[in-house]
Amino acid sequence: MGDRAAATDRRKALGGCHVSEYLAALHLMLKGCRIVALRYRTKLGEIDIVARKRNLAIFVEVKAGREEMSAIDAVPPTAQNRIRAASDLWLARQRDYAVLSKRYDIVAILPGRLPRHLPNAF
């Protein structure tokens, strides 16, 4: 097992990825968003956070890293497509689907800094 894979396994074992998601959710709530789902899983993919702000559905990918750009680069087009597919399933299950706008954001969790919210990231 490589160093990177071992570090990922240790972080998951300690719940590090969940901590990042909780920090991101708290940050979004402080910005006026209502969190409606954490780790929303479908057969098509997973969305880290689903938030709402009025008639806007916000689908958020949370990335932890040392630099902001590495967090953004960690969401390749294939991941973006899976998130979009999962978001379409989530939207289809909402009563007010017809009036909802949608947005795809990234929240970067960086060591020793406040979370960085990147609206319309993809």
From TrEMBL:
Pfam families: UPF0102
InterPro entries assigned: Restrct_endonuc-II-like (IPR011335), tRNA_endonuc-like_dom_sf (IPR011856), UPF0102_YraN-like (IPR003509)
UniProt KW keywords: Endonuclease, Hydrolase, Nuclease
Record carries keyword Ribonucleoprotein: no
Entry's Gene Ontology molecular function annotations: endonuclease activity; nucleic acid binding
Gene3D superfamilies: 3.40.1350.10
Family that this chain belongs to: Belongs to the UPF0102 family.
Protein name: UPF0102 protein LPU83_0389
